[in-house]
Amino acid sequence: MRQPIPSILLTSFLMTALPVLAGEPGNLPVSMQLTRIAADKWRADYKFAEPVTSLEFEKVGDFRATAWQPLTAGVRLQEAEQTERYLSDKPITEFSVQVSAYNKFLPKHYAPNNRFSDGGAALYMGFFDGAVYQAGQGSKSRDMTLTVSYSGRAGETVIPTPSYADPQKSLQSYAYFGPQKPLSVGVAKLIMDPATPAWIAEVLLATTSKASTYFADTYQRPLQRELILMVAVVEFESSGFSMKGGATNGQITYRLSGNGLLKDSPKARDMVKRVVTHEMAHIWQNNVSRGGIGESAPWIHEGGAEAMAMDALQNTALWTAENVNAYQTAAIARCDKVRDQPAAYDYFYACGLENFMQLKLASPVIWRGLMAETEKTGQTYSEAMVDSVSQRLRR
Fold first, then answer.
1. What does 361-386 look like in DSSP terms, one character per residue?
2. Which residues fall within 8 angstroms of residue 291, CB to CB, at 6 or more apart?
3. Domain hosting residue 369, numbered range
């Protein structure tokens, strides 16, 4: 952020810096049509408001290198450690790419595809957003302001991402293509893989109902946006039981895998309850008119969701107090192993939960305060906000 300029230098600053600033371009308007062209293929057609010579994206494992095939002549992929660029031999106003189904799970990233046993599929749209570069227009890239339209195959249901005033927020979710019509389940609309075992469907739906009711009453704010739930079964072949959840803007997606899905047990039911309640907590963290979840201090989001989930699980009798205490004790032990590694994945969850426990404030108290503060200031949640709000609440 630019620091205040002493008044004695203001005249010189205006004479030298303002002409440069006035000439800096803003975001480039870009439209894209995403069309499902086959069971496992989509075509993305970009159109740029001005000619560009490259597109730049944050690298997501080998997703684009293996699943994206440029269709525009003269465009090639250039990979770096953290970014990927599609370079053109000459300025272009359109770019097309074929996107194939990609089933790998990439740690610390949303799954690019969630596929359903009935042929449905959901694509994470944030991976289509990026920046552009224009040769001869200076050395800086320009972020896209990307708007997307969607088209499925004949007779197919298409559910676009939730609509927000900020187009970038709209893209931080999944678009669904498939045969199912969404079902109304309490506060949410549901797309559930028909291969989902009956016991998981029962626990997931009951927990969603109880947790959403508890969060709405306890945090004194009904959902501002319709919630879409998507449950996909990846496979039954591997050993064990994996349930991965991801909360995006206005959505929760679940990926189920492993032969353990077929066996109902109290331990498995408790795991499903925790995952569902944790992801629902993220929805309420972001159930604000402005501010909310940001890029920094992920321990606040993940550890906060763990704390909110423990409170909800106990107060809805989904878990016993003994279950909650045992989970918290295990989290502290996990945190001890990564306490000096704040970038470690487990730090966000285990140490984040311990951090909130050490505030000595009930989860609803601190999170009602944080939600009010982020709406008041428009700032995202941060360590400084947690410190200031918790100190004020303890007075």
1. S-HHHHHHHHHHHHHHH-PBP-HHHH
2. 373, 374, 375, 377, 378, 379, 380, 381
3. 298-394
Dump pLDDT digits (tens) for 30-81. Answer: 999 999 999 999 999 999 999 999 999 999 999 999 999 999 999 999 999 9
Helix ranges (DSSP H) in the chain: 10-16, 18-22, 63-67, 167-171, 198-218, 266-285, 298-315, 321-338, 345-346, 352-358, 363-377, 383-394
At 382, which amino acid appears? S
Cα–Cα distance, 345 to 342 (Å, whole number): 8
Q: Which residues fall within 8 angstroms of residue 18, CB to CB, at 6 or more apart?
A: none
Say whether both 158 and 44 belong to one domain: yes
- CA angle 246–124–270, rounded 5-degree value: 20
- Specify whether 127 is located in the same domain as 200: no
- Separation CA 127–CA 148 (nearest Å): 13
Tokens 């496979």 sit at which residue?
235
**Residues 340-356, mean pLDDT to the nearest whole number:** 96
Instruction: Using a pLDDT cut of 70, give the percent of the chain over it.
Output: 93
Q: Tell me, yes or no, whether 61 and 193 share the same domain.
A: no
Tokens of 195: 């291969």
Q: Which residues pair with 145 in a beta bridge?
A: 29
Residues 248, 224 share a domain: yes
- Domain identity same for 64 and 166: yes
Predicted confidence at residue 296, as pLDDT, reads: 85
Residue 144 burial by CB count (10 A; 0-12/13-18/19+): exposed, middle or buried?
buried
Residue where a domain terminates, one of 262, 285, 308 = 285
Judge whether 7 lies within some domain: no
Beta bridge partners of 31: 47, 147
Within 10 angstroms of residue 363's Cβ, the number of other Cβ atoms is 23
Proportion of the chain in helix, strand, coil states, percent, rounded to 5: 40, 30, 30
93 and 152, same structural domain? Answer: yes
Rg, Å, the chain Cα set: 23
pTM: 0.85
Q: Residue 245 is part of a domain; what is its CATH number?
A: 3.30.2010
